[in-house]
């Protein structure tokens, strides 16, 4: 009996088949690595203050709106996010810096560096999320399904 050099058989790939990827454009996949405002937004819930509000407080429609927001925001650069800022025209993400005093007291809030800009982004007509930017990452810190942290005037 002759021993095979390779115990794992090679898979045959037909030449007509092309490999499947999440995205064929490597540039799009890694665009969060771009520098400055050209980087696309990468969302993180690492600092989510779930003792204020948690996703479990959201209904199915609100969660669906959040997941649509999540999918959409990854297609935008920070420059495009900043361009949605407007005091009168609340469309798109409606980037809006919010004073730290508006947020609930917590150890997290007390330990935030004074040079961090906290801002809200619009999920839909009512729902907002709040956090800060570090490089290309948007650290989502507070969920605000009722727009109560900084109510509309």
Summarize the helices and strands and which ones pair or pack.
Layout: H1 26-29, E1 42-44, H2 60-73, H3 78-82, E2 96-97, H4 107-110, E3 118-122, E4 128-134, E5 137-144
Parallel strand pairs: 1-5
Antiparallel strand pairs: 2-3, 3-4, 4-5
Give average pLDDT, whole number.
Answer: 84
- Rg calc: 21 Å
Q: Unreliable segments (pLDDT under 50, ≥5 consecutive)? A: none
For the record, give the distance between the C-alpha atoms at the N and C termini, rounded to a whole number.
84 Å
How many individual helices? 4
**What can be said about the biggest beta sheet?**
5 strands, mixed
| Helix percentage | 10-25%
Which of globular, elongated, flat, extended, rod-shaped describes the shape?
globular
* Strand neighbour order, sheet with most strands: 1-5-4-3-2
Order of helices and strands: HEHHEHEEE
Summary tags:
153 residues, alpha+beta, 18% helix, globular, five-stranded mixed β-sheet
Can I get a quick summary?
The protein has 153 residues and is of the alpha+beta class. The chain has a domain at 51-144. The chain has helices at 26-29, 60-73, 78-82, 107-110; strands spanning 42-44, 96-97, 118-122, 128-134, 137-144.
């Amino acid at each position: 009996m002759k021993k095979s050099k390779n115990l794992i058989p090679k898979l045959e790939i037909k030449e007509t088949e092309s490999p499947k990827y999440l995205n064929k454009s490597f540039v799009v996949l890694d665009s969060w690595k771009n520098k400055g405002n050209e980087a696309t937004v990468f969302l993180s819930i690492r600092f989510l203050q779930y003792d204020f509000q948690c996703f479990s407080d959201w209904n199915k429609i609100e969660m669906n709106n959040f997941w649509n927001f999540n999918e959409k925001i990854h297609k935008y650069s920070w420059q495009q996010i900043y361009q949605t800022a407007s005091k009168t025209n609340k469309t798109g993400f409606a980037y809006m810096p919010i004073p730290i005093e508006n947020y609930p007291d917590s150890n997290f809030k007390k330990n935030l560096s004074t040079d961090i800009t906290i801002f809200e982004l619009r999920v839909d007509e009512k729902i907002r999320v709040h956090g800060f930017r570090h490089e290309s990452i948007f650290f989502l810190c507070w969920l605000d399904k009722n727009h109560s942290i900084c109510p509309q005037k």
